[in-house]
Sequence to fold (506 residues):
Amino acid sequence: MSIRLRLTLWYSGILSVTLLLFGFGLYLFLSFYIYNDLEKQLGRTWTETYERIKPLAAPSIRGRVPIKLELDNVDMFSENTLLQLASLNDKEGPVIHDRSSVLKNLELTLPITNNAAQKLRGKDSLVVERLNLKVMDKSYPIILVSRGFDITDPVTGNKLTRGVLQVGATINYYENFFNLLQYTLAILAMLTVLIAGTLGWFLARKALRPIEQVIVATQQIEKGTDLDKRILYDGPEDEIGRLTVTINGMLGRLQLVYSELEEAYRAQRRFVSDASHELRTPLTTIRGNVELLEKMWSRTLTSGQAGGQDKEQMEMSIEAMQDIAGEAHRMSRLVNDMLSLARADAGFEMQRQPLELRPLVEEVARRAQFLPRQVQWEVGDLEPLTDVVVVGNKDYVQQLLFIFIENAFKYTEEGSVRLDALRSGDQVGLRIADTGIGMDKEEVPHIFDRFYRADVSRGRTAGTGLGLSIAKWIIDEHKGSIEVKTRQGEGSTFIIWLPVVFLPVS
Fold:
């Protein structure tokens, strides 16, 4: 989930909760204020009506109250005001004395529940209720304020019973208003959240656009090699502005360090390349002269022209020259390897062209039998190479094969070294297998590192540790891969996979 979406969801959620609390509070406030004001109005109406109650003499029949109550000018209030005057009778329930004309016309009476009657019998009792008044098939919500008072005999002043004056008003108008208010608040809240979320999405996008520019610029710098690029920003000096300035400063320092390292690396490559090139000529001269002297003195010893002491000195000199020749040969190989790696580091691209693979491999197999070795050299099935064409460089492919074959001879003291070929889809494999000392599996990832030599073989065989590094570079230049199978004490198998090019048959 992106930062922009998270920000939009967060402030949309906060706005929704805020609007919910605001709407709920507004609804409760208006409901309390309006209904409380209505109850106060009904209370004032009750007081004004109570002052106009007139008791009338009435005969006592079957225990009824011998007083009849009547309201003076009962319809002086609004038509929506409901008035009812009654008395509480323990035996037969409430007795209705008088009602407003609305109730009379509809032949309705206001209810007095048992619970309300018990409360109304108490002193200074007041009962406020919300009821539904049924008129024909409809139900109308009302607020009913009921309060009890004592009914006394106008002659004797004795308390006869408890009277009840009820004042009510229909509140369907208020109920409709609050229902409409609920829907209005809900719709307005949803529209507000939707509009705020949409605007917030675009504002967040606008605010985070500099960060996207930072990302795009850094990706371009990461994918390319030009460290001169900088992030363009023309906004205010806010957090994003400071971030951009910081990143540009970091890129500047990286460019400086990279330039210094690149210059040092170029100088190193130039030195290695120049030194390797310059050392090849004197080493070749040394090897040639030593070999010439060795042949001349060997011929002198063979002809018997040297005396006893001279013969012994010549033999020692020949041994020394052989050591010099061996070291010179080793240094020549090292110089050639370093020159190859220097070319690789300098970005040297070898010339490649379509190359028929089988004749090249057969030539390498023929020449490999003359290499120094102590084991049997075997050439297996090369039939998979028939009519196989790869895009490569003949000299480097031969060097690649000789590197693996010479390594196999070097690390195999008994058994055999075998060369064969195999096919897999559009790949051809050149397999060199030996029965030598092998390696631990933990060492396999490091054998192509420069100057790395496995601990098992270090000090036991001559070498510089650069051959496999050169081989890996040649394989990479040919878009190939290398597969290694090895087990310590049982030998190693290297499979060089090269992509096959199928040329049309002419």
